[in-house]
Amino acid sequence: MQYPKISIITVVRNGEKDLENAIKSVVNQSYDNIEYIILDGLSTDGTLDIIRKYEGQIALWKSEADRGIYDAMNKGLDLATGDWAYFLGCDDVLASPTIIEEVAAEFTLADSIYYGNTYLKKSNRIYTGKASKWNIPLRNISHQAIFYPRSVYKQKKYNLDYKLAADHVYNVELYGRLREHFVYMPKLISLYNDLGMSSLNVDQRHKKDIVGIVFNNLGSAVGSYYWFRVKLSNFKNSLKGGK
């Protein structure tokens, strides 16, 4: 696949503060075969004015009600026509004007899930390195650093039961079923705002279910290891709280 189409999807609601930087990082890419889709959740600020400013460089945009970020992301996957789909947050930016050209050159296997790294701006660190069945339950793969092939994103959608961490469930389930299709690229894909809702809040349903999800998808050895790590973390946090 010499010049695969890359669908980049941004979901936003009331993002006028940051959205223009995200859009610029996409429309200024050196790679031509990009389908840029923006889904707005009925913003009440100046978000729509920003989108309209760039609509000549946006393949498709809509402003309509949704049931949360993952519902909007699922709508984006339904609309996408690319060979691979990628999500860029409204307050994130692509790492460089050539990064899509760089990664597209590596997309040689049509059913592979390609992923790299993202820079966490608040934490001032690179996230997350190469995934394995042992570490993906603990640290996920940032959806600002992963490209899903059409064979995946047209068949599998985000579980709306998980309001803040459906992407973690999505990746754990995929890794359990398609581990050999995950291809790591040691490249910085994006700069990520780790002050967003999912970074600062806990998805209680995810917290309740994730150990079982790991057991079911990655096996009993990994599930037991993850359970132990969770218990150890909880114990350490309780000690800190008792001081």
UniProtKB/TrEMBL annotation:
Keywords, in A-Z order: Transferase
Short name of one Pfam family: Glycos_transf_2
GO molecular function: transferase activity
Ranges where the Glycosyltransferase 2-like domain occurs: 7-144
InterPro entries linked to this entry: Glyco_trans_2-like (IPR001173), Glycosyltransf_2 (IPR050834), Nucleotide-diphossugar_trans (IPR029044)
Name of the molecule in the record: Glycosyl transferase family 2
Membrane-crossing residue ranges in chain numbering: none
